[in-house]
Design a protein that fits this description.
- The structure is a homodimer.
- By secondary structure, chain A is α+β, with helices and mostly antiparallel strands.
- Chain A has a domain of 89 residues: Phosphoribosyl-AMP cyclohydrolase (Ubiquitin-like (UB roll)).
- In chain A, 25% of the residues lie in helices and 26% in strands.
- Chain A is built from three helices and seven strands, in the order αββαββββαβ.
- A four-stranded mixed beta sheet of chain A has the order 2-1-6-5, with helices on one face. A two-stranded antiparallel ribbon of chain A has the order 3-4.
- In chain A, strand 1 and strand 2 form a beta hairpin.
- In chain A, helix 1 runs antiparallel to helix 2.
- The first copy, chain A, is globular, with a radius of gyration of 19 Å.
- Chains A and B meet through helix 1, strand 1, strand 2, helix 2 and strand 5 of A and helix 1, strand 1, strand 2, helix 2 and strand 5 of B.
- Strand 5 of chain A pairs antiparallel with strand 7 of chain B.
């Protein structure tokens, strides 16, 4: 029963892979950036890259697979670390040149051990902007939106 | 008073721009991908690209500025559409080669008129993965995590 269900899903997915690849616009290196977001908390965990084969694996296996630009190889997130990413949904953007992959992330998404790669990198000093007419108490950049 | 506060922030930010740029790893085209996320709802709105100057403007003006790869020019989100992005925070990732920008987005982030660019592009057919031992009722991909 599981087999027949899996085959049905597999065939359906295989047929749509060609359609998916036709909609996607890979860059000069054959890659698409993929934003990885925890499906329930909505944390942005990391940004990775997929070529057509990594995207096919991601869409058909339930696990996120990337192309490593630095190592020049496929890597299935979690195979070394145990910190797997289980696929919940995959969306293409309006131009077909970016992916949003919602996942269930086991443990740390970042190789440094933090939950997200952006915690690891940390905040940059930024002037906070506000909509015109919005002047929060104590804001030091209340006028930043005035030119909008 | 506002002026003196703004100058203080400005000088502090200017001094740290060099440090920021030293931490960032721009790609062969001099660009960093920037994930844009609504600060309170945590929606992922879009993916854009910044060169060093676009990042400097984003960090110092309270408004998100991108480099348009298709048009070969800077664009400050909202100047044409009115759908401005007001900066709340900017984080660099662990490798220094991706940005997470949390914003207050006015209206639609996507040029197609949808709130996010991923709504506009829409979902791809994906097999859903689950942690080992997790078998939701009705799942058609209950075994997808078994190899993890």
């Amino acid at each position: 029963m599981n087999n027949s269900t899996d085959n049905s899903i597999g065939n359906s997915t295989d047929r749509s892979i060609s359609a998916v690849l036709a909609r996607a616009t890979f860059d000069a290196n054959g890659l698409l950036p993929a934003i990885i977001q925890q499906w329930d908390s909505h944390e942005v965990l990391m940004l990775g890259y997929m070529d057509a084969e990594a995207l096919r694996r991601t869409l058909t296996t339930g696990r996120v697979t990337f192309w490593s630009r630095s190592r020049g190889e496929y890597w299935r997130k979690g195979d070394t670390s145990g910190h797997a990413q289980y696929v919940r949904s995959v969306d293409l953007d309006c131009d077909g040149d970016a992916l949003l992959v919602r996942v269930d992330q086991v443990g740390a998404a970042c190789h440094t051990g933090t939950r997200t790669c952006f915690e690891a990198g940390g905040p940059l000093p930024a002037v906070v902007g506000h909509r015109p007419g919005e002047h929060p108490a104590g804001s030091s950049a209340a006028g930043a939106g005035a030119a909008g």
